[in-house]
Amino acid sequence: MSRSDGSVLTVASLRVVIALRHSTVRAVDDVSFTIAPGETVGLVGESGCGKTTIGLALLRLLPAGGRIVSGSVRLGGHELTTLDDEQMRAVRGDRIGIVFQDPLTSLNPTMTIGSQVGEPLRIHRGATARTARDRAAELLELVGLPSPSRQLDRYPHQLSGGMRQRVSLAAALACDPALLIADEPTTALDVTTQDQILELFSRLKREIGMAVLLITHDMGVVAGQADRVLVMYAGKLVEVGATDQVFYRTRHRYTQALLESIPTLTSSRAEALHSIPGQPPDLAHPPPGCRFAPRCAFMTDECRAAQPAMSGSQAHTFACIHPAEARA
Amino acid sequence: MSTAIGLTERDAAVAEAAAEGGLRLAADVFLENKLALAAAVTFAVIALFCFVGPLVYHTDQVHTNISQTTRHPGSAHLLGTDDVGYDELGRLMVGGQTSLEIALGAAAVAVVVGVLWGAIAGFFGGIVDAVMMRVVDAVLAIPALFLLLFLASITTASVGILIAVVGLIAWLVPARLVRGETLSLRTREYVQAVRVMGGGPLRIILRHIVPNTIGTVIVNATFQIADAILVVAALSFLGLGIPPPSANWGGMLSNGLNYSYAGYWWLVYPPGVAIVITVVCFNFIGDALRDAFEVRLRRR
Amino acid sequence: MTGYVLRRIVQAAVVLLLVSVIVFVMLHELPGGTARAVLGERATNVAIEQFNKQNGFDQPLPVQYWRWLDQIVHGDLGFSFKQNESVSQLLADRLPKTMLLAGTSVLLALLVSIPLGFVQALRRNRLVDYFLTAMAFVFYSTPAFWLALVLITLFAIQLRLFPAQAPQGSIGQIVAEPGGMVLPVLTIALVSIAFFSRYVRSSTLENLLQDYVRTARAKGASTWRVAFGHVLRNALVPVVTLVGLSLPFVFAGTLISEEIFNYPGMGLLFYNAAVARDYPVLLGVTLVVGAATVVGSLLADICYGLLDPRVRLARR
Question: Which chains pack against C, by 3+ Cβ pairs within 8 A?
């Protein structure tokens, strides 16, 4: 699982902490995964589970108080955690691109679309204003913006939410990065626009074939886009596997509970909505055993004693002592 | 958990303490600010000096004493005497009382008038708001000092008059602030809820909107106090302060400046430094209060 | 943008009108009225009645207001009996000089406080920041007249670098002696710098917390590029409005500065008129200063609209 040959991204035993005034939160605790070329990996979990922190940690853009304590992050074989500031800056925007959740606040309100999309080229390729502008127009066309050359001189507030997100995507793709991180790219958009943006992702995947780390809390988004899924809970990965494995042959009880709590069109009106009782643990003082145990209906004393190890086959792993039945 | 770049530890602490109650949270942040704490203590000391001091250090602040004018600081007069024989230290205390009274009184007037004006304007909106705010703009357009000088030239200053006059100029800024807050609060659900329940405008304004603007108002009031001290000092300098034997720091300073060439430093520095320290204290406190309330607002 | 500008102009016009009403009310609150002010304390009632009739003071208020407004619009701001000159004449002479003083002070203040506040924000909570913040607080809390006298003592008397009195005469003569302007300008500018730089600092800090800064960093931008290419522009936009709002404060500063340095501007004119109870002058100056503030604010708001694309290119 942690072989660096061929894979775009290899994360091994990553630990990230966030130092608060009176405590230290273990936001990401011993997380390992890989992303192969052309693969879309979905990182899914509820708010506060640490998934966004992973995204920021990969770019070493953690907020004040956050730092990578241990572990390795290799991009195409090159270790990122040991780079100095200047070297890391060369990676950001060039080898890794990122799209954030809120398209309005993520864009500079007083800077034209064209200059914002072309900026990575000016930073990393030494492009002239002219070249950057031309390339920006091409990128805007790539992401499906109508009349791209006209949009170049407009400002973010003049565009709709969906168009802004396309712009952010265009900027992230400007230097042909090896990896694209999409942090909740559709959460701030309405349902129709969400659909359009996801369509765009699919199309880009077919056309460009780049590796994508798709971070989201929405199982539906993951189901439609990801090749493989990483389920995260309270800072740890609890289930990892191909999408249909995780969705249809669910093993970890948390994943199971998550899937059950999604209302479907066919569930009867009379049925109460399933929800997972309780709260996620305090990550400043995490429990010794399985972190989901306090909320799990299948929990035993063994679960609370020690962290369950990852078990299962190479293609589908999970950290649960009492997993759901493996169906044929 | 917010992940914006530039998030400071203080902001992280906010996230951490978000579970606690709002006011306690604000108090926490305020107390964390060492500067503000020092300022608050300093002001307490100054207030004690002004109001309790004369009970300990007795001087005659009513009768002049021509045989004792402009004495250097010594055992009889710890800070010397001024040009008509008053003991300077004693005068500093009594002057401080007047300066502080006027400043606090003016700030109180400003707050009461300003909050009501702003809340009414913001709550009713529309033409009422437009007219009320244009009035504020108009009075704001005329520099306070000009208005005050004019008013002072047609009346004889006294503590009460100065409180009224300074306060009536100072209410404009709280009015604007409260109006802005009211406009945003008006659309909140709980205000709509009270309306649905049949609550009248007065009730809504007084019981629901005003209490929620307290934070902004308190912050502004602290700055008003600071400004009022400076304005009264300026008025005294321009010769339109309260006539003797009443004293205030501004008057003492501007009087003392007449003698700076003679080297009578004790007539200049004590009142001057007293003004600067007091005003700085209020500015620090106001700054810290603003941080504290902003923290509470963000949690909302 | 046009919608925005039009609305601002209409608002400014209304405010100007209200300013004139306020001044008019002040005119009427004079104890004994203008008559007594002009004719003196010993004037007989008959003389006063005659004066009032002659000058239309016996008419109903709205009529008087209208006539007064009419006069103003035609450039007649009354007559100063004490100085024996028309108020408009006096103002025409003094206004440009005060504008010169105020304008130079504001310009100097901006030129210094913008880089100062910006650097403070970037070096937040370091020694530089604390030191400059402390300085700002002290300057801001010191009575302007004391500051002026300290400046005089230091620069005029001890170091003999600049004169303690401002240049006199026409505006041409004043400009010819820039050295004499230094201390008056500094008095106003120092306090303004304290105020502006705090504001620039907090505006910059606010911007540094914004998501678009994170995006810029994620593109690999260096701190330099983030600061000057992204944050500066956004942080400065509200400063324009701030300048507009601080105009009353600047004019108050000119009053004190002119009095201390004997600078022949509107502030000194106003002060002398206040002491001499020369009401026509007092009212004329108040009106003009009020108008200048309203117009200045309007211009600042329009500049703001031009600078912020969200306003300049709004849907309306």
Answer: A, B
Q: In this structure, how many other beta carbons lie within 10 angstroms of the beta carbon of residue A271?
A: 8
| Residue C33 belongs to a domain | no
State the complex-level ipTM. 0.86
* Residue pair B115/B210 in contact by the 8 Å Cβ criterion: yes
Domain of residue C98, residue span: 89-265
Q: Is residue C303 part of a domain?
A: no
* CA distance linking residue A150 with residue A159, whole number of Å: 12
- Give the length of chain C: 316
Chain B residue with Cα closest to A48 = B1
Q: Which H helix or E strand runs over C171?
A: helix C171-175
Is the separation of the CB atoms in A115 and A134 below 8 Å? no
In a domain, C292, yes or no: no
Residues 6+ apart with CB under 8 A from C25: none
Confirm or reject contact between A63 and chain B (CB < 8 A): yes
Q: Which of B220, B262, B271 is nearest to B241 (CA)?
A: B271
Compute the distance between CA of residue C16 and CA of residue B256 in angstroms, rounded to an integer: 41
Burial call C47-70: b when 16+ CB within 10 Å, e when fewer: ebeebeeebebeeeeeebbeebee
Q: Which positions of chain B have pLDDT values less than 70? A: 1-26, 28-29, 32, 152-153, 189, 294-300
Question: Residue B246 corresponds to which tokens in the numbers above?
Answer: 């009443």
Model's pTM, two decimal places?
0.82
Q: Among partner residues B153, B237, B284, which is closest to C145 by beta-carbon distance?
A: B237
Please list every residue in chain A whose beta carbon sits closer than 8 Å to the beta carbon of residue C212.
105-109
* Whole-number pLDDT of residue C31: 60
List of chain B residues whose C-beta atoms are within 8 Å of the C-beta of residue C154: none
pLDDT digits (tens, 9 = 90+) for C206-230: 888 889 999 999 999 998 899 998 9
Residue A120 sits at the chain C interface (C-beta within 8 Å): yes
Q: What is the DSSP letter of C158?
A: I
Q: Give me the phi and psi of A244, to 5 degrees please.
A: -70, -25
Q: What is the pLDDT at residue B13?
A: 46
* Average pLDDT of span A170-183: 93
CATH code at position C168? 1.10.3720.10
Specify the amino acid at residue A259.
Answer: L
Alpha carbons C7 and B293: distance in angstroms, whole number: 33
What is the band of A2 on the pLDDT scale with cuts at 50, 70, 90? Answer: very low
Q: Which of C212, C224, C237, C240 to mutate to test the interface with A (most CBs of A within 10 A)?
A: C212
What pLDDT does residue C34 have?
Answer: 61
CB pairs under 8 A between B and C: 135
pLDDT at residue number C38: 62
Dist CA C130 CA C124 (whole Å):
8
State whether B142 and C286 contact (CB < 8 Å): yes
Contacts of B7 in chain C (CB under 8 A): 209
C144-182 burial code (b ≥16 CB/10 A, e <16): bbbbbbbbbeebbeeeeebbbebbeeebeebeeeeebbb
| Domain count of the fold of chain C | 1
Inside any domain, residue C181:
yes
Chains touching chain B through at least 3 C-beta pairs below 8 angstroms are A, C
Minimal Cα–Cα distance from C8 to chain B, Å? 11
